[in-house]
Amino acid sequence: MAVTTSTGLFSGVNTDQLIQQILSVESQPITALQQKSTSYQGKISSYGSIKSALSKLQDALANLKSGNIYSIGATSSDTSSLTATATSSASEGTYNIKINNLATAQSVYSTTFASETAAVADLSTNATQKLQIQVGSGAPATITVDSTNNTLGGIKDAINSAGIGVTASTINSGFVVDGSNNTIVFNDGTDHTATLTAGTYTADSLANELKRALEAANSGSDTYAVSYDTTSNSFQISNSSGNANSIDLAFENASTTAAGLLGFTATDHAAIAVGSNMTGDNAVGGYRLALSSNSTGASGRITIKADENNNGTYAESTSETDTTGLSKLAFDPTYDSTGGVAGGIANMTQSTAAVDASFVVNGLTVSRSSNTVSDLINGVTMNLLNSTGGSTISLTVAKNTKDIVNNVNSFISAYNSANQLTRSLTVPTNGQGVLFTGDSTANTILDSLRNATTTSYAGQNLAVLGLSHQQDATLTVNQSVLQSAIDSNLQGVIDTFNSMATSLDTTVGSFVDTAIPARTDGLNKSVDSVNKQIQDIQDRVATMQASLKAQFTAMETLMSQFQQDSNVLTQLLGQSTSSNTSLSNSLSSANSSSGSGG
Question: Which domains can be identified in the chain, with CATH numbers?
């Protein structure tokens, strides 16, 4: 018969319940230890909150020190022409300023090319050529031009990649028609004036507009064809073969203003016979390479030189300064007093002159290469925005005392947050227990905060400046008293708050950097110790549980074996009784038979 070891089956004892009762008694210390650990961890968390509040108080104290308690404001009477900022070291005063002109950055552009992919240099003789580009007195940069980049777009990209203080771009210049360039006088047997409609045109749209204007001027008696050749970048005007008259375009006539726009010189051109045409003298329209200096002022002017024979010498001959090949981009001019091009090599056209800013401060005329000026008035940075046209701007530099009030209010808020938080954890109210009862570190923090605001600094205490404690220990300020003190003795207010902030910052810093970390370190060690005690008990209980389980299992096994042996004995005893009864019955029967026979 198999031995059954199910708990309590043979012993009649609920061993699981008995073991649990024994272990429960052994585990009772864990509850108290866990409560102790929770208390330690609560203190650690609370000290973290106090440390955070004290750190914010330190930030507020920093803004009460003399270097930060106020700012210097710079106020312009005309912010559309001048704005300014000031540091705490700025020289206070009022400055009268006139802005004659702003500093500008130079921009130049090339002659026209048919497209961005049009070749610039003639590489048939020298397969490698160079440009040398320099901004002001800066180091010149070399741009190599060969078959890999000999296009308007390729040279643009090479210049931008060189990082030399110049921004290059390609532009489709188009054509702008306005009242200064919109008339053409012509004769087809009668004098006429064709007028172009003002607007911005592409080459093709301007060709269509010129055709319209010519035909409108002669009331449509003759027709014309106008086209734009993208190879030569020039306009061609054709007198249709079906017309009755030749047409004489009088570009030399003073009343003709569109000659330059269309690329014709102001000379007497031959009349266009019926079925013939006339092509412009100069290339106009198309794509141009535009360069802009990244620096304002005369010191940011751009110089471009060409080396077409690749011998390392730039602009050494006429071929390297003319208007063919790579030297189309040469630009090394002389300038007049206004920054305009006065001579020299100017194969590119200056669209914006590079001039220094010129302005007058308290009667003194000065100039700067930048419109941001920070080296004229100590601690003040001025931003020149527009010419004042002879008008005077008033720039006032003065202390901003509103900062003092704002910084004091910020300090009070941070002080109350730190103080009230610490009090709520340290000082019992209404008989309620608190987490830091008797905690020396927390009590020292409270005492230090209180003492710091009641001590005299620089000959006066904070009460004179309107600061006082309420019954609930919060700090408040009487704004009118504070403002009166600022108005009557600004330096005294600054000195008092600086002294208090310096002293309290040292004290608070010792709590933040030393005392609280030391206290939380001790609490963490206590948590570790308690957790180890809990683990030791849990290990001991686990060992006891295993031992008791084994003992009760052994008892059940023994009881099972005993029960099995008892059943066998009972069966044997039962069989013996049966045999005895049978024997007795047999003997009785025999005796009966013997008696009868006698």
Answer: 34-67+403-533 (no CATH), 73-103+356-398 (no CATH), 105-173+286-352 (2.60.40), 176-279 (2.60.40)
